[in-house]
Write a structure and sequence with these properties.
Elements: H1 2-8, H2 11-38, H3 59-83, H4 90-100, H5 106-115, H6 117-129
Helix pairs in contact: 3-4
Length: 139
């Protein structure tokens, strides 16, 4: 209990956490629409996901990019989990992390999330405002 009191009585730590939360919140407001607009309209129309843009690169480059992408996803996942109890957009940050991480069943999970009516309406609204076609799903 004394340790917890010490943490919350440290103004520098509180300011740092507040600034990190604000940066993550603003970042999520910018990154989520950017990511949604970059999804090809037919991304969810197949049974399997599309190939990544760097699939044809040299194997070393491909593995380095894959490693960096997953490290970024892991950092965002940890930050999102922390923001569930700290100020910030924890759930949004976790969703962004899922986009960057590679794991078995990821495509099916993304598809399920994007097929939720409220998510689909929001994504279609955002894409319509940007002049992009809505996402196509194979039912």
């Amino acid at each position: 209990m004394d340790r917890l009191v010490q943490i919350f009585s440290n103004p520098a730590l509180i300011w740092t956490l507040g600034i990190v939360s604000l940066v993550c919140f603003i970042g999520s407001l910018l990154v989520i629409p950017w990511l949604v607009l970059r999804i090809p309209a037919d991304y969810f129309s197949g049974e399997y996901r599309h190939r990544v843009p760097w699939a044809e690169q040299h194997p070393v480059i491909r593995w380095v990019l894959l490693l960096l992408k997953n490290l970024l996803g892991l950092v965002l996942l940890l930050m999102g989990i922390a923001m569930l109890v700290l100020p910030g957009q924890g759930l949004l940050t976790i969703l962004i992390a899922l986009v960057f991480l590679n794991f078995p069943g990821k495509y099916r999970l993304e598809r399920r999330i994007f097929m939720i009516p409220s998510v689909r309406q929001g994504v279609d609204w955002l894409r319509r405002r940007a002049g992009r076609p809505p996402l196509i799903f194979k039912d």
